[in-house]
Write a structure and sequence with these properties.
Blueprint (H helix, E strand, L loop, with lengths): L2 H12 L6 H16 L6 E2 L2 H8 L3 H13 L3 E4 L8 E4 L2 H19 L15 H12 L9 H9 L4 H14 L1 H13 L5 H13 L5 H39 L1
Antiparallel strand pairs: 1-3, 2-3
Helix pairs in contact: 2-4, 7-9, 8-9, 8-10, 9-10
């Protein structure tokens, strides 16, 4: 396991789960011991060492360990004579990667176009299909694109913490509009989900429901911003010229 990645994954996991401070402390202590043991699948950890490193009493260790086990963050085997208790840390990095893969598979399954061969149809010529798509939607628009895939192509793997929110936007506005928002965010240099969501919220408040409306809205907005920029700069230039005139007269 990668120590730093596991720490970051634990912070992300904590955003969705409540955990008593003592349990958090014990998790960090066990992770430190696992790191010292060079990430062996299982490692021994006597209570005396855990007490010294964490400052927790034996009773608090027992209580916190139970919480970590209930949340499936660790596996624990009690010690026996002349052998300390055995621990195994569950990788949260692997947990989130598996969660992301599952969500992606579900998304692709939900948006999958049925294979014509499975239904006894003859496959159509791909070039003809593409040409028809261009005629229906205009050159360069790829309606068959999946918003999830387009997001990852532009911003990287979508984080589990925002995945549900992203899918909700796709359900509310449709993949086509979300893809258009992703393209707009990328053009403006935005590389965060919050930047993308700000665009989607603005469009939703404007009552945008189609791709054409989104394009017209941005066109009008750009015109308005250009006009405002010209007026603002004109005022600034006039103020500078006035200042220069006053200095020349003095």
């Amino acid at each position: 396991m990668n120590y730093l990645k596991e720490l970051n994954a634990f912070k992300e996991w904590m955003a969705f789960h409540e955990m008593p401070p003592n349990a958090v402390l014990l998790w960090h202590t066990l992770m430190m011991l696992n790191n010292t043991a060079r990430w062996k699948p299982t490692f021994n950890a006597p209570n005396t060492i855990i007490r010294n490193l964490s400052g927790l009493t034996s009773q608090r260790i027992i209580e916190s360990r139970k919480i970590l086990m209930e949340n499936e963050l660790i596996h624990y085997e009690p010690g026996v004579k002349n052998k300390a208790a055995m621990y195994q840390m569950k990788s949260l990095v692997f947990y989130f990667e598996k969660l992301a893969q599952t969500s992606r598979e579900q998304w692709e399954l939900r948006n999958k176009v049925p294979n014509p061969v499975q239904f006894g149809y003859q496959p159509r010529d791909i070039l003809k299909v593409k040409e028809k798509d261009k005629q229906n939607r205009g050159e360069g628009r790829a309606n068959e694109q999946n918003a999830y895939t387009v997001y990852e192509q532009n911003f990287g793997i979508i984080k589990p913490i925002v995945r549900e929110s992203f899918l909700a936007w796709c359900d509310d506005l449709g993949d086509e509009i979300v893809i258009e928002a992703i393209k707009l965010a990328a053009e403006k240099g935005g590389r965060t989900y919050s930047y993308l969501e700000a665009i989607l919220k603005e469009w939703q408040q404007a009552g945008i429901t189609t791709l054409e409306q989104a394009e017209n809205y941005q066109l009008q907005k750009n015109k308005s911003q250009s006009t405002q920029f010209f007026v603002t700069n004109k005022s600034k230039n006039r103020a500078v010229l006035d200042e220069i005139r006053r200095e020349l007269k003095s």
